[in-house]
Amino acid sequence: MHHCNRLGLRLVRGFTLIELLVVIAIIAVLIGLLLPAVQKVREAAARMKCQNNLKQLGLAMHSYHDVDDGFPRGNIGSWGNDHGSWMFQTLPYMEQDNLYKQVTAVVGPGGTTYSMPNWDMQYAVTAGVLPRKLPYSRCPSDGYDTDNPRYANYIGSQGPQCNDGSCSPRADPFQIHCNGMVGGTQADGVSFPLTPPTHPGYGPSSIHGTTSNAGNCRGMMCRGTGSVGGPKIKIAGVTDGTSNTIMLGETLVEQNEFQRYGNGWGWAGYNSVSQGQTIQPINYPIDGKSVGASWSDCNSSCTALGVNPANCIWNWHVTWGFKSNHSGGANFCFADGSVRYLSQSIDMRTYQYLGARDDGQPVTVP
How far is CA 344 from the centre of its chain? Predict the structure, then answer.
């Protein structure tokens, strides 16, 4: 607005320094109020995408079951004769049939074809077909090394499976949830039982899920052993009900030993996506992920670099649990294909019964 003084000169009124500072302060306050809202919207979108990934994987598992009369094994084969993980087996049902055909068409040394018992997933790595990034294998909330084609945030559930870690028995605090005795002896790969069991309804199980016997696999899959791999679980074998049994769940790559330091084939093969367990609490904290701790640091001294062995990333007893960057919990796909969010404060007995497919105990999904 223009004014004239007594001399007829026109004066232009502008912002004073104080007024300018007030305006800047108001803008800063508004931005401060807006940013958390934007972050919440962004996380809500990421969580929805993550849930959709799990939903599509769950539907693929059921499509596989319809064709093959059973859910995919955790792995077909094992070390040296690896024919693929459950995620690899579901490729044709996730619009990735071309990749499945490329891998299974690889011929190994001496004319070894995929149909032969001694074919191995490493042949596909050598041929340059793997690793390959999938459009649905990562949760948007996990920003760790997102372009690495080996990684996946979604892993199968072994349920309350026993697991001797690299610091055993010094740092195996969760054997009580698989009903195995911490520091106890083993017989035929099965942990010595606790008497009475911590959670009645199931017995101790094969260490690491290394079994082809469904009777020693507490959850929906195990990674298995030999040329067979994990046991094939059918819907009829989920006697607790598919709506009460966890099938798949989330992990964080940076805090997961078999993801971060896994094999060249990544999600496609053995020892990669079939080892999620419920004996560890959801979002159990893992250390050593950025201080350079190696397997030998945890295995030999269990205290190297100041890492607590009970939280060391190389202690697979603690690192195989489910975890996410979603606030206060993680997403899970149940055996009926439904996706639900479970709080990290869930009662541990309830959690174990949701992980076990045939414990016969009543449980309500919280």
Answer: 15
Joined tokens for residue 278: 């419920």
The whole domain housing 247 covers: 42-355
Q: Which two tokens stand for residue 80?
A: 């040296």
pLDDT digits (tens, 9 = 90+) for 237-273: 999 999 999 999 999 999 998 998 889 999 999 999 9
**CB hemisphere CA count around 26 (13 angstroms):** 6
| Whole-structure pTM value | 0.87
351 occurs within a structural domain:
yes
Chain centroid to CA 326: 13
Task: For residue 123, tell me if it sits in a domain.
Answer: yes
Beta bridge pairs of residue 248: 156, 333
> What would the pLDDT profile of 159-179 be if each residue is shown by its tens digit?
999 999 887 777 899 999 999
Residue pLDDT, tens place only, 127-171: 999 999 999 999 999 999 999 999 999 999 999 999 998 877 778
Amino acid at 338: S
pLDDT tier, 290 (very low <50, low <70, confident <90, very high otherwise): low
User: Residue 169 and residue 347: Cα distance in Å, rounded?
Assistant: 25
Quote the CA–CA distance of 47 and 326 in Å, as a whole number.
Answer: 7
Other Cβ atoms closer than 10 A to 327 = 12
Query: What is the phi-psi region of residue 106: left when phi exceeds 0, alpha when psi lies from -120 to 50, beta otherwise?
Result: beta
Q: What is the largest CA-CA distance in the chain?
A: 106
**Rg of the chain on CA atoms, in Å:** 26
Which residue, 193, 134, 187, is CA-closest to 160?
A: 193
Q: What is the tally of structural domains in the chain? A: 1
What is the token pair recorded at 17? Answer: 């320094």
In a domain, 17, yes or no: no
For 326-354, the pLDDT digits (tens) are 999 999 999 999 999 999 999 999 999 99
Please check whether residue 212 lies inside any domain of the structure: yes
Report CA-CA distances (Å) from 176 to 180, 200, 221, 315, 360: 6, 12, 21, 17, 19
